[in-house]
Write a structure and sequence with these properties.
This is Transcriptional regulator, MarR family. With about 70 residues, the chain is mainly alpha-helical. It has helices spanning about 5-15, 25-40, 45-50, 55-70. It has one domain.
Length: about 70
């Protein structure tokens, strides 16, 4: 068994391990986009209308909005 170099251990610890490795900023952007899409769908008109019926309706309305509009 050999000792890992600093750049190899960065892959395991979540740091940037080189030009080909995704950086923390890339992960932050991806998470931010996902949260933004979810928030946008949950605040849509179909989600609000169906959400007045039940919490499940809120989720179904958000999914309906995302599928039909995006």
């Amino acid at each position: 068994m050999r000792t890992l170099s600093t750049s190899e251990s960065a892959y395991v610890t979540g740091g940037s391990g080189g030009a080909e490795a995704p950086t923390n900023a890339d992960a932050d952007r991806a998470i931010g986009k996902a949260v933004g899409k979810a928030w946008h769908s949950l605040n849509s008109t179909p989600a609000r209308v169906l959400g007045a019926i039940s919490p499940t309706g809120l989720v179904m309305g958000a999914i309906w909005h995302y599928v039909s509009q995006h």
